[in-house]
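Hi P.,

Sorry for the delay on this. The queue was packed all week, but I finally got your sequence through. Input first:
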Amino acid sequence: MQKRKVGLFGAGTIGRAVLAELQKHETVEVVFVVNRDPAKVADLGLAPGIATADPEEALSRGADLVIETSVAQVVADYAPRVLETADFCAFSGTALSDPALEAQIREVTARSGRRFYLPHGAVLGLDGLSDAGPILKSVTITTRKSGKSLGLAPETEGVVFEGPAREACRKFPRNVNVHAAVAMAGVGMDRTLSRILAVPGQGVNEHRIEVEGEGLSWVIEASSPSLGGVTGAYTPRSAAGSIARILGGGGLQIV
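Then the structure:
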């Protein structure tokens, strides 16, 4: 059986969870892990030469699927090119706040037949949002985190942003990837209302999604303890689950 060649950008909390999932699959060959300092991934059980700091050399290895778990700029720099010949999974969905990048990704995937995956991350219910698309009237996502988790001063308190998801993603590119995912699944970056609240000392990342449409009214709430940075404890598990679905498999599946 021919193995699926997979490359990974980033080896932080989410990247390590993704790599652990990839290493479970006998049908997967990890062909690169790009990290600024390859020595920092020496504990990941990679074969010699797999870890590299050179994105261009890494992409020359012919991956069938490239996964980004680092920063939005990686999506902007490499997704359109990768999608000419391979699939791309972006955990930094805030990159899609650039309408030109979104348009380029849609054009390339339509032409090449490749797929661009946007994981649900720390929230739930995006399948329902996507299914309800034509009958949705409004979608609001409210996030409550500590200032530290938002990249702000720890004592920051109150509403730090309220407006279109596109602007939230531009202002907090590392902190609101769930807003990008909700927007892209539902009514888009400009019609999705984002609210971001800073709560001093809060150790939990909270997200509330309010949805109104023809014949439907939903409130979805998700919370997870912070791991100390921008990531909640659920997100690495969520990331591994998304990768498992991308890789596919047999048996009973929930769709």
